Amino acid sequence: MADGGATSPRPGGDQRSVTRRRVILSCLAILSVATAVIHFAVASSHFQEYWLFGVFMLVAGWLQLLWAVGAVVRPSSSLLAGGALLNAAIIAVYVVTRTMGDIVGPTPRATEPFGFGDGLCTVLEAVIAAGCVWLLAARADQPVRHAGLIGSTAATGAVTAVLLSVALVAGGPEMVMSVSASSPAGTSAAGTHAAMRMSAPRTSAVSLATKSPAGKITMPAPGMQMAPGMKMASSAPCDATPTRRQQEAAVRLVNASWKDASKYQNLAVAKAAGYRPITPVGLPVVHYLNIGSYLATITGGSVLDLAEPQSLVYANTPRGAVLVAAMYITRPGGPTPQPGGCLTQWHIHTNLCLRPGLGVVAVVSPAHPACPPGSRNRVTPPMMHIWFVPIPGGPTAIDAPDSQVVHAAEQAPAPGNGVA
Fold first, then answer.
1. What is the pTM of this model?
2. Each residue's pLDDT tens digit, 51-66
3. Euclidean distance between the first and the last CA atom of the chain, given in angstroms as a whole number
4. Regarding predicted confidence, which is higher, 154 or 171?
5. What's 108-143 look like in SS3?
6. Could you tell me the pLDDT band of residue 186, with boundaries at 50, 70 and 90?
7. Contact partners, residue 307, CB within 8 Å, separation at least 6
8. For residue 9, what is the DSSP state?
9. Is 302 helix (H, G, I), strand (E, B) or coil?
10. Extended beta strands in 299-413, E state
11. pLDDT tens digits along 294-322
12. Distance CA 76, CA 23 (A)
């Protein structure tokens, strides 16, 4: 396909002309650059949520940027077809994640929220795809004055720049690209994505409503509620204010966890599903483990399996056992996804006497420094609670003393369970 972009002198002056196709391609190239900028801007926050999300954003951004260069330098029918297919595919992914939910990642089936930045990007992609199809189907070799090219591209660039600026500002901190020399707080021991971290204001002013009986999500203070024998899974403090996207992800995680785990308010249902106590029954707080779910995690399954969390936590009250939390457990050295940033932190226990199979037999203390026979003191795999009762710190609090957990459980409806 000839690009029709060559200019030619016109009789009676120095006026020159280009084809309408050249004008449209130049405008589409500007729009494609804008979509690439948006994808580059959000890549860092997507890497924090899940590595594949970040890779997708980078690949999409680079392809859109390269397409824009090709549209100006060497347009062709194959380039137009590729532009239509590329942008249509990205739009399809966007529609699926906003309607059906994420297909992969730490929170599968959780739908993504709509924002101005991603909405603008999708609209621009739709315009590019439609423009490519139109250029493939229609004759667009009519001459246009060279001034028309300058005017059209200038107007398109100005409008796009304004909208892009609004998107980068209105999109929140996750739309701003910056790199920190420190590794992301809360990443696994392997330091996954250590070079990809966005900066964010450091403040604790977070209060997010949820559908969980635990109430609102608040920003945990570094090391809050750390009892002896507990510490954070990451040695780096996690005190960066979560981005808007991370806050929304935390709310989705809490709401989905409560929705999926609420059936286990009935202890008999949990036992029938394969949950077995791994701490002594009859204690104020008892942890149950689903061996099948944890084995699936060990063999590469999802760590944040909302439908079948690896562990459930019950508190014994005078009215019977009450479901107080779902607890997600990763494999030793495994991934510790933080979809909510510092709102979703992982911790470990260093003072537990464990028998084979993660059964907790006793707690090491100055009064009892040795483990009972058949068990040994081992560091647990990283774990994260999502609470369903109103403990201090809200549904994503790192942990709480048993007395606080039981007190909060006493405020919840009792489903008629016996002793956990």
1. 0.55
2. 888 899 999 999 999 9
3. 74
4. 154
5. CCCCCCCCHHHHHHHHHHHHHHHHHHHHHHCCCCCE
6. very low
7. 260
8. B
9. coil
10. 311-317, 320-329, 347-349, 352-355, 359-363, 376-377, 383-387
11. 999 988 888 999 989 999 999 999 999 99
12. 14
Query: HSE (CB half, 13 Å, CA atoms) of 165?
Result: 6
Length of the chain: 420
Print the domain residue range for 86: 17-175
Of the three residues 160, 175, 190, the one that is the final residue of a domain is 175
4-30 residue pLDDT tens = 444 444 444 445 677 888 889 999 999
Compute the distance between CA of residue 26 and CA of residue 8 in angstroms, rounded to an integer.
18
Residue 2: pLDDT band with limits 50, 70, 90: very low
Same-domain pairing of 171 and 215: no
Give dist(CA 47, CA 62) in Å, integer: 16
Please tell me whether residues 161 and 242 are part of one structural domain: no
Question: What does the alpha-carbon distance between residue 185 and residue 191 come to, in Å, rounded to a whole number?
Answer: 9
Look at the chain and report how many structural domains it folds into. 2
**Pair 26, 149: CB distance under 8 Å:** yes
- Tens of pLDDT, residues 85-130: 999 999 999 998 888 877 776 556 666 667 788 889 999 999 999 9
Report how far residue 60's alpha carbon sits from residue 58's, in angstroms, rounded to the nearest whole number. Answer: 5
- CA–CA dist 420, 415 (Å, integer): 12
> Smallest Cα–Cα separation from 197: which of 215, 179, 214, 185?
179
With respect to residue 199, please indicate whether it lies within any of the assigned structural domains: no
CA dist., res. 252 & res. 304, Å (int): 12
Tokens representing residue 355 in the block: 């028998």
- Which element (helix H / strand E) includes 218? strand 217-218
Nearest to 289 by CA among 279, 301, 302, 275: 275
- Residue 217 in domain: yes
Helices (H), 144-243: 146-170
Task: Identify the bridge partners of residue 353 per DSSP, sorted by sequence position.
Answer: 362, 377
Q: What is the mean pLDDT of the chain?
A: 81
Angle (deg, nearest 10), helices 146-170 and 20-49: 20
Which of 133, 154, 175 delimits the end of a domain? 175
Residues 285 and 171 reside in one and the same domain: no
Whether 205 shows a pLDDT value over 80: the answer reads no
